[in-house]
Amino acid sequence: MCPTLTSLGGPWYLLYDVNPPEGFNLRRDVYIRMASLLKTLRRRGDWVLVLPPWGRLYHWQSPDLHQVMIPWAEFFSISNLQVNIPVMEYQEFIAGWFWGYEETRALGVRCLSVQGHASVLAPYLQDNITATKDFIWGHREDVPSLKGAVKKIRSLMKKHKLDTVFVATDADEEEVLKLRKLLPEMVRYEASRDHLELLKDGGVAIIDQWICAHARYFIGTSVSTFSFRIHEEREILGFDPKTTYNRFCGDEENECEQPTHWKIVY
Question: Considering Cα of 196, then 198, then 200, then 204, what sign does the dihedral take?
Fold first, then answer.
């Protein structure tokens, strides 16, 4: 930043947003990068990161559920985020300057590239089946059919002597019913209506992810950010990479490239 700007004191507020189609876990990744950027900025001034409210994401498909302008506190502990860097909710930022807001529009937009102990919850196999139509269309060769996925799951259950498989998927109810018929051993986390209104689809996804992170064995979907984050959580928790970095192959693939093992350097 320019020295004349940072010498004025502050505080200064860093606002950002993410492309609307992007999913929950990619937005979490962007936050981590923005937090790293803010740490650098704070060497030269009093900077605060303003958290963009959550809107309805493509994967959040629960009907008749209000899921716009959701504060981060609905999903994350703000006090824990503030241990690392100073953050504030967007509505707090707006409240300091205006009476209220309906819409906020930017006069200009620039895209910025910012790079920057284990326990098994229960003896079960966990898999992530991404079934959103646009994902399947874009990755037809990498994603198995339901029958193909079930064949692989049964093989893994037999190999690891497991009786239960937990499935995290964004498939619609029709697809889930088909899957249940093919795989009666499957279980899912299904929130009651009251819990869904409290947690929203984002909170349910976090619960799914945490269950996946503690499975005896995990297998995910190609290029799925949801699967990537589970790899990360399991790596932090100390699970064997052989039970973590796995993905389904397409029906026409006898073998396929498995996810890269990214070691965390402390």
Answer: negative
Does residue 253 form part of some domain? no
- Tell me the C-alpha distance between 40 and 33, whole Å: 11
Catalytic residue, candidates 22, 92, 175, 185: 22
Tens digit of pLDDT at every position of the chain (266 positions): 444 454 556 799 999 988 877 888 888 889 988 999 999 999 999 999 999 998 877 667 777 777 788 899 999 999 999 999 999 999 888 876 655 555 667 677 676 665 544 455 556 676 666 544 433 334 467 788 889 889 999 999 999 999 999 998 877 788 889 999 999 999 999 988 888 888 888 888 889 999 999 999 999 988 788 899 899 999 989 999 999 999 999 888 888 999 988 887 66
Q: Looking at the structure, do residues 144 and 205 belong to the same domain, yes or no?
A: yes
Helices (H), ranges, the chain: 3-6, 24-41, 78-84, 90-95, 133-138, 146-159, 173-182, 193-213, 225-237
Angle between helices 146-159 and 173-182 (to 10 degrees): 40
Residue 102's CB: how many other CB atoms inside 10 A?
Answer: 4
Residue 40: which domain range? 8-95
> Any catalytic annotation for residue 22?
yes
For residue 64, the domain's CATH number is: 3.40.50.11340
Residue 52 and residue 148 in one domain = no
The count of structural domains within the chain is 2
Co-location of 156 and 79 in the same domain: no
- Residue 144 and residue 85 in one domain: no
